[in-house]
Amino acid sequence: MDSARKMLTVLITTCLCAAVALCLVFVMTKDDIELKQRLKFVRAIKAVLPVEYLSKEVDIINYPLCKEDCKVCNIIYIVKEKSKVVALATEVTVKGYGGRVSVIVGVGEDNKITGLKVVQHSETPGLGANIIKDVFQRQFAGRDETIKLKKDGGNIDHVTGASVSSRAVVKCAKEGLGFIIKNRSIVNYNSG
Amino acid sequence: MHVAPFNIMTLFNEFFKGIVKENPTFRLVLGICPTLAVTTSLDNGLGMGVATTFVLVFSNMFISIVRNIVPKKVRIPIFIVIISTFVTTVELIMAAYVPDIHEALGIFIPLIVVNCIIMGRAEAFASKAQVLPAVADGLGMGIGFTMAVSIISGVREIIGSGTILGYEIMFSGYSPAVIMILPPGAFITMGLILCFFKYMGNLLGRKV
Amino acid sequence: MEKANLLAIFIAVMITNNVILSQFLGLCAYFGVSDSLRSAFSMGITVTFVIVIASAVSWFLDYYLLIPYHMEFLKTIVFILVIATLVQLIEMFIAKNIPLLQRMLGIYLPLVTTNCAVLGITLVNSNEGFNFIESLVNGLGAGLGYMLAICLMAGIRGRLMFAKVPRAMQGMPINFLIGAMMALAFFGFQGFLIK
Amino acid sequence: MWTVLVGTLILCGCGIVAGVTLVGAARVFAVKTDERVETIEALLPGANCGGCGNPSCYNYAVKLVSGEVEPNRCVLSKQESLQAIGDILGIKVEAALRRAASVCCLGGMVAAKQYEYAGMPSCRVAVLYTLGDRQCQWSCLGFGDCSKMCKFDAIYNKGRSIPFIDADKCTGCGACAAVCPKDLIKILPVGFPYVVCSTKERGKAVSKECPIGCIHCLKCVKGCPEGAIKEIGGIIKIEYSKCIQCYKCVEECPRKILKVLSTVRQEEGATA
């Protein structure tokens, strides 16, 4: 049974070395990874605010809402500039053409969309994937709940050859807007 | 275990054979999953190539070091642990310093573990060679793979989106052939490039 | 709702986002083992079998070990270790108890360890946050999708014998081009949504 | 520090569980493998040609150990290695009866045409239209599907012709026989006579379709001193266990359709 013992010893030693090495790398890179993720998040939030905030410092407060309230989104981000609430934002995920489409929607004090950014999607490259283009996303600023594609009798131009993907983004915008309007009072009340 | 003696020349040979003669992608047709999946643009392709080269060099090195103490029966689990350690290291480093490429490559970074090139080189070469030739082999194979992936992704990016590394290079009015950056385009590009190499091989072979 | 969701996952991974033709997982074996319909079928069965079991085991590890201790970065190494062990275990088990299966699948089992489809699907399960049943359904769908693609490929390659293929195209190049045609065909299934 | 500790614990735990399971399973599921199988497999040529009727050399070795088959079924092994296998198994090995593939058709392109065929150059495709373009339905179509199947380069076609089989290279694996859509290729013992025609017609019907086909005159049947040749269901059959290799039948055959395998090679069929 010597061979079995040797097998085990070698295997466990390898695992041990691997684990220690990996954990060290993890600890070393952890802060950087978190920083990069935070930066990305802040960039995404800033992208949904009016243009003048791009260079300004903003505070982002997470306001989690209970899951039962809404199936698609459950955190509202309160964006403040010098303790004045600029906008509320939330992430909405719906089904697109090739998979899920995740969108961050920003809503101003006047209950209109301040901006929108597609943060994750798996739409067809070259067609549906064009929903990430600014030309498309910029159309959403200043819209209210009546938002619709031109094709469906509204005012948003859809991305050429990808009405399903465009419709998914519009749906996100609508749901996010509705969600924020519905919960605005709670958020305002609790966060003072 | 018999280990062939080596000198500088053999080291060079080990290094260069991976680039042309035994190019892992075009000659041995190994590791085609990442070759096809992440080559939608040149920067993704390069990122994948560099990551794979890193893993290949270090896994070859360590496997060559431990080759004599590993019992035959647990060889594969141990190789896999060694390889995946380096893969995870690469994954963490990429997430920390090049998050965009990390995100674009997605699931295919962890999948370097099961890339046939790495397991294949570990089994076929590193587990039988001394450390230096193993590293040279890993480096050569890695560079060969990187070159192949860059060629494929370059072709796909130019035709499929009319850009190279994100810069527009095609004439104005060029409407990109989207199919090339979709899954079928990957197969088409790979098939035609392989065909080209085979044709050239036939031509050269006839002359000799 | 629940059932429709499961069906959506199943159809997506089997047809619309076929593991081989649109996600590019497990291509080595796809080209390597598709020279005859019989071996393609055996390979498909083996992959399906291993993916389903690996999905189940890795789900437990992920849910009860890695997530509670925030050790998600060890996912790759743990999953591949599980798969390698599992494959060897299955190999030994069927060699002892089901010799018939051993004769059919024996030579394909070692190929499955380094098949990206298996590791890929377990990673997808974990990244998408699938629950246990969803993971199983995803695994099963992926396996069947794999089988579908590889059997179709083997069927076409069988026909290829009668065709006049230019010399430079023979072997791998023509296989890739067949793959391209099949990927195009499967691409047509996209947008096949279940709401 | 906490991370390092927990991470190490988890990974080592997985490693231990994996290792213990594998070692344990290796004991629980240990299949009693006979060491002789490996030794014998090493002695076999390892070509997995299928000539012995088994899918691989390993399967053949397993069957050898269990005593199901004789060592002389392997056509590629040299006599010494067969003898070595016999020594391991403790049995006496008789010289292997060499077998080789042979096309049982002499006419081929000589047989009368039914129509001009211009389809894919493949027997398996051509046979779909009225069993080929020749009037004789047992005629070789000559596209050489069999030669493409040969792993040993033993068969080749010159244009559209009856394939030429090199009996020295042929291992008798039967890959060509399996692919022939008309079942014209038979795996037969070398050095024995065989009928190089597969027709079931007789007399004039044969002559009309092919000037060199077997007309079933049965001279060979009558001429055989051992009674080893019989006509069963329109086919001339030679019982090789009775054949004493006197080659009387070969002399008797008026059309010279009976030949001896390997000593007289099939002439290359006339091209169309």
How would you describe the overall organization of this protein?
- The complex is a heterotetramer of chains A (192), B (208), C (195) and D (272).
- Chain A has one domain.
- In chain A, 41% of the residues lie in helices and 21% in strands.
- Chain A has 3 helices and 5 strands, in the order H-E-E-E-E-E-H-H.
- In chain A, strands 1-2-3-4-5 form a 5-stranded antiparallel beta sheet.
- Chain B has 208 residues and is mainly alpha-helical.
- Chain B has one domain.
- In chain B, 65% of the residues lie in helices and 2% in strands.
- Chain B has 8 helices and 2 strands.
- In chain B, strand 1 and strand 2 (167-168) form a beta hairpin.
- Chain B starts with 7 loop residues before the first helix and ends with a helix.
- The longest helix of chain C has 30 residues, at 37-66.
- Chain C has helices spanning 2-16, 27-32, 37-66, 75-97, 99-105, 109-113, 116-127, 132-160, 172-187.
- In chain C, helix 3 crosses helix 4, helix 3 (37-66) runs antiparallel to helix 8 (132-160) and helix 4 packs across helix 5 (99-105).
- Chain D is an alpha+beta fold and 272 residues long.
- Chain D folds into 2 domains: 35-89, Orthogonal Bundle (3-methyladenine DNA Glycosylase II, Chain A, domain 3); 99-260, Alpha-Beta Plaits (2-Layer Sandwich), CATH 3.30.70.20.
- In chain D, the strands form 4 sheets. Chain D has a two-stranded antiparallel ribbon.
- In chain D, helix 2 crosses helix 3 (57-65).
- Chains in contact: A-B, A-C, A-D, B-C, B-D, C-D.
- Chains C and D meet through helix 3 and helix 4 of C and helix 1 of D.
Number of strands of chain A: 5
Uncertain spans of chain A:
none
* CATH-derived topology of the largest domain in chain D: Alpha-Beta Plaits
Total domain units of chain D: 2
Would you state the CATH class of the largest domain in chain D?
Alpha Beta
What distance lies between the first and last C-alpha atoms of chain D, to the nearest angstrom? 85 Å
Oligomer: heterotetramer
Largest sheet of chain D: 2 strands, antiparallel
Strand order across the biggest sheet of chain A? 1-2-3-4-5
Beta-strand content of chain D:
5-15%
Distance between the termini of chain A: 71 Å
Can you tell me the overall shape of chain A? extended
One letter per element, helices H and strands E, the order of chain A comes to HEEEEEHH
Strand order of the largest sheet of chain D: 1-4
Shape of chain D: elongated
Task: Quickly describe the structure.
Chain A has 192 residues and is α+β, with helices and mostly antiparallel strands.
Topology, please?
The complex is a heterotetramer of chains A (192), B (208), C (195) and D (272).
Chain B: H1 8-17, H2 32-37, H3 42-66, H4 75-97, H5 99-105, H6 116-124, H7 131-161, E1 163-164, E2 167-168, H8 183-207
Antiparallel strand pairs in B: 1-2
Helix pairs in contact in B: 1-7, 3-4, 3-5, 3-6, 3-7, 4-5, 7-8
Chain C: H1 2-16, H2 27-32, H3 37-66, H4 75-97, H5 99-105, H6 109-113, H7 116-127, H8 132-160, H9 172-187
Helix pairs in contact in C: 1-8, 3-4, 3-7, 3-8, 4-5, 4-7, 7-8, 8-9
Chain D: H1 2-28, H2 35-43, H3 57-65, H4 79-89, E1 99-103, H5 123-126, H6 145-149, E2 155-156, E3 164-165, H7 175-179, E4 185-189, E5 193-195, H8 204-209, H9 219-223, E6 229-232, E7 235-238, H10 248-252, E8 258-260
Antiparallel strand pairs in D: 1-4, 2-3, 5-8, 6-7
Helix pairs in contact in D: 2-3
